[in-house]
Design goal:
Aspartate Aminotransferase, domain 1, Aspartate Aminotransferase, domain 2, seven-stranded mixed β-sheet, globular, Aminotrans_3, pyridoxal phosphate binding, Glutamate-1-semialdehyde 2,1-aminomutase, transaminase activity
Length: 465
């Protein structure tokens, strides 16, 4: 098919976002690279936002966007939901403070609701982020098994700390054989020991995983997995059930990282869809309604390692001589179970119990519209994902089952399409996944499909259209 592209989208983007560019120049004088999280940056400069409401964002140049990044999936109810706002204000008015520093009623009330939706969480603990939740889950697994090596899957992300910042986005040429991927560090400053102690596994390859885990069964205490890689590449059911059987057989704790998928696949997360019960689950993002929160929950016998007891507070000098590390699994945090955040979380669950079904249907409508438009222009590709998360995969000749398959797709054209969509008021950080919220409307979905048609015509249409 002949290709007849219009003006390069980067030029239009820079023209439309001049104030963002000026802001970032100033920001670089304050923060390294101008951002406080690497993920917020993209070339030539990120869009700087000044207002959000519902499914819309407005940038500092007064461009309005339909937002599908939704703070990387955290805003499952959209920007500034009135019910969430009211819950936060009511908590502060009713309780008179937004932080007790003591146990409080919302810790129990929120926990009961989470346990209803995630029956595998027999006991749970709060953290301040999904990253902290996955970190605590590894400590719990090591305490339970006495084994300190961990295994994770190539292409899966569980937080920006050394143990798990391994083989997240590796160079495939350096990553070894697909059946036995090498563990590769993703950052400067990491201790080489983590490369030795974190084993990379191939996603959706059960036989290879069985062989690797069996070889290291006396060392590996935990396997952590995103049941849906990056939120949009699903595990195959036979793989998930097989992994559960293997880890049980080998005495390895199976951890489902549902920070992305929790309350976005459905009220019970990916584990409810697969019918597989992990030993531990981590949650974050969606349950905070835009506030920082994390949760670890799972089997009582594992979670009870963290139970507070005599000598379990390392800051209590009166007990220091009567306890030792072998008796204590330390976990603490000033803001764990923050009452204001849990009030927001309770409101989010109220909204999702009522409106998540509609958001799931709108996501399917958007995916179907994109897929039909791809077919219209003869593009091999699909909107791939489960629940309210998906990504657009281009020019794949076969099924995308894992990280390496994804690297064989047309990533360059996907990036170009994303910039063209930005210029038409569809906000997605280039190359990111889409997250649909309860705030998105049928009109938003239809406008997005129309924008896709315009963009694909520009990129692929050619003279015949």
């Amino acid at each position: 098919m002949a290709v007849q592209k219009v003006e390069h989208p980067m030029l239009d983007y820079k023209e439309k976002t001049k104030s963002s560019e000026r802001f970032m120049e100033e920001a670089q004088q304050v923060m390294p690279g101008g951002v406080t999280a690497n993920i917020k940056y993209f070339d030539p400069h990120p869009v700087v936002m000044k207002h959000g409401k519902g499914a819309k964002l407005t940038d500092v140049d007064d461009n309005e966007y339909i937002d599908y990044l939704m703070s990387y999936g955290s805003l499952v109810t959209g920007h500034g939901h009135e019910r969430v706002k009211k819950a936060v204000m009511d908590q502060m008015e009713q309780d008179g403070t937004w932080l007790f520093g003591t146990p409080h009623y919302l810790e129990v009330e929120m926990g009961k609701r989470l346990k209803q939706h995630f029956p595998s969480m027999e006991r749970l603990r709060y953290t301040n982020s999904g990253t902290e939740a996955t970190l605590l889950s590894l400590r719990l697994a090591a305490a339970h098994t006495g084994k300190h090596k961990i295994a994770k899957f190539e292409g899966h992300y569980h937080g920006g700390y050394d143990q798990m910042l391994i083989s997240v986005n590796p160079n495939v040429e350096s990553a070894g054989d697909a059946d036995t991927p090498k563990s590769l560090p993703e950052s400067k400053g990491m201790h080489p020991a983590h490369v030795r102690n974190t084993i990379a596994l191939p996603f959706n390859n059960l036989e290879a995983c069985k062989q690797i885990l069996t070889e290291h069964k006396d060392e590996v205490g935990a396997v952590m997995i995103e049941p849906v890689q990056a939120g949009f590449i699903p595990a195959e059911l036979s793989f998930m059930k097989g992994l559960r059987a293997i880890t049980e057989q080998l005495g390895i704790v199976l951890i489902f990282d549902e920070v992305k998928t929790g309350y976005r696949m459905g009220l019970g997360g990916a584990q409810a869809l697969y019918g597989v019960k992990p030993d531990l689950t981590t949650l974050g993002k969606a349950i905070g309604g835009g506030y920082p929160v994390g949760v670890v929950g799972g089997k009582e016998e594992i979670m009870m390692h963290s139970a507070a007891s005599q000598g379990s507070d390392v800051f209590d000098s009166s007990t220091s001589k009567r306890s030792s590390a072998k008796d204590v699994l330390f976990h603490s945090g000033t803001y764990n179970g923050h009452p204001m955040i849990l009030a927001a979380g309770m409101a989010v669950l109220d909204i999702l119990e009522k409106d998540l079904g509609a958001a799931l249907k709108r996501t399917e409508a958007l995916k179907n519209g994109i897929n039909e438009t791809l077919r219209k222009y003869g593009v091999k590709g699909e909107a791939l994902g489960i629940g309210t998360i998906f990504s657009v995969i281009l020019n794949n000749d076969g099924k995308v089952r894992n990280y390496r398959d994804l690297q064989q797709t047309d990533l360059a054209t996907r990036k170009e399409i994303d910039f063209r969509l930005l210029n038409k008021g569809i906000y997605i950080k280039p190359m990111s996944r889409y997250s649909v919220s309860t705030a998105h409307t049928d009109e938003d979905i239809n406008k997005t499909i129309t924008a896709y048609d315009d963009v694909l015509r520009e990129v692929y249409g050619g003279a015949r259209f």
